[in-house]
Recover the amino acids of this structure.
């Protein structure tokens, strides 16, 4: 086992996602069995006691890869020297709310956290925002961290990506491993666009393999885009274990890279690719090599896809304007 632990910060560590995420990270799911990890857990003061209980449980697992745990309510202490920051802590939506309803409540969390990361994180810091509204929260954190390269900020659309893979695999009766090149475009919201025109099933174009435009437009897309709400409706609480699993997938891909010939969905700062307004955090198909992501270039976008991407980007621009108006960026 290597000797220097990777320092991973998790915010909202006493919450539902945290309860699944911490144990996965500590057991080596993120960096493998040979890399020790040190957990840095941030919570608000009233949740620290519950977090102490979670740490007792982490101790009780005797994970060989867990090199240490620190907890606290002061971001500048907890983020000191961290290599990865998984920003999960935020208020989840309840039944009937859209994720955008959380902008003001949660926006205020990400400006100070961005500032704290800017001040004390390690030079190689990589930031993943899971807390909703994830894209715009990532924009807020990024805008408040001027010394951290903008490409080190990302938001989670991997859960949507995984949901899309699973729905498509079920429709075609194939294992999920047959599916490659899935893309989620835009916002982690009901406007997101899960794209089957560039996805592949067993090497064949997914839209052609489905051969049913009505299912694609009127079942597949809304099922994926509204899956978060369906889970809230069914469970009475927002997705947690699947969100934790997707957060691990996202951070692991960022570290280990994408397999040859495949890509993943990540929400990252737009450079204007595919006509997505520069500067917003939007989901794209990306490949990752040596810890750096690149937006896949050269995909043909037909009128159907164009309209869907534009609608989601318009929502992100509105969210950006709203947080600008609130003085958060
Ligand atoms: P939760 O309410 O169970 O936990 C959130 C935790 O964050 C709480 O323990 C709370 O005390 C803590 N917190 C609040 N403000 C904080 C701050 N300033 N600093 C540190 N911690 C703080 O919620 P959850 O179910 O774990 O969900 C967390 C977030 O993740 C929500 O915003 C939810 O909507 C979002 N989410 C995103 C995705 C995605 O795919 N991007 C999926 C599922 C959930
Ligand atoms: C999800 O997609 O499950 C989360 O973003 C939670 C939510 O509010 O939908």
């Amino acid at each position: 086992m290597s000797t220097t632990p990777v320092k991973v910060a998790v915010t909202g560590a006493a919450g539902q996602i945290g309860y699944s995420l911490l144990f996965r990270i500590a057991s080596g799911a993120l960096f493998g069995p040979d890399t020790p990890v040190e957990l840095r857990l941030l919570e608000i003061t009233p949740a620290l006691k519950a977090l102490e209980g979670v740490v007792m449980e982490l101790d009780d697992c005797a994970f060989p890869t867990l090199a240490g745990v620190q907890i606290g309510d002061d971001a500048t202490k907890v983020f000191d020297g961290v290599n990865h920051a998984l920003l999960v802590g935020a208020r989840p939506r309840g039944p009937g709310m859209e994720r955008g309803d959380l902008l003001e409540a949660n926006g205020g969390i990400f400006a100070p956290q961005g500032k704290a990361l800017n001040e004390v994180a390690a030079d190689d810091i990589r930031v993943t925002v899971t807390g909703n509204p994830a894209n715009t929260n990532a924009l807020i954190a990024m805008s408040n961290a001027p010394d951290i390269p903008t490409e080190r900020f990302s938001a989670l659309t991997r859960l949507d990506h995984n949901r899309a893979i699973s729905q498509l695999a079920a429709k075609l009766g194939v294992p999920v491993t047959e599916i490659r090149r899935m893309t989620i475009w835009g916002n982690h919201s009901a406007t997101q666009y899960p794209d089957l025109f560039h996805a592949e099933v067993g090497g064949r174009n997914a839209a052609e393999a489905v051969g049913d435009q009505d299912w694609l437009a009127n079942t597949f897309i809304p099922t994926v885009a509204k899956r978060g709400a369906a889970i809230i409706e069914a469970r009475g609480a927002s997705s947690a274990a699947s969100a934790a699993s997707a957060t691990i997938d996202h951070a692991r891909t960022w570290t280990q890279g994408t397999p040859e010939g495949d890509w993943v969905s990540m929400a990252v700062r737009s450079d204007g690719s595919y006509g997505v307004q520069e500067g917003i955090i939007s989901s794209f198909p990306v490949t990752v090599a040596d810890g750096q992501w690149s937006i896949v270039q050269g995909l043909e976008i037909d009128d159907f896809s164009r309209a869907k991407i534009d609608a989601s980007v318009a929502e992100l621009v509105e969210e950006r304007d709203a947080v600008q108006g609130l003085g958060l960026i």
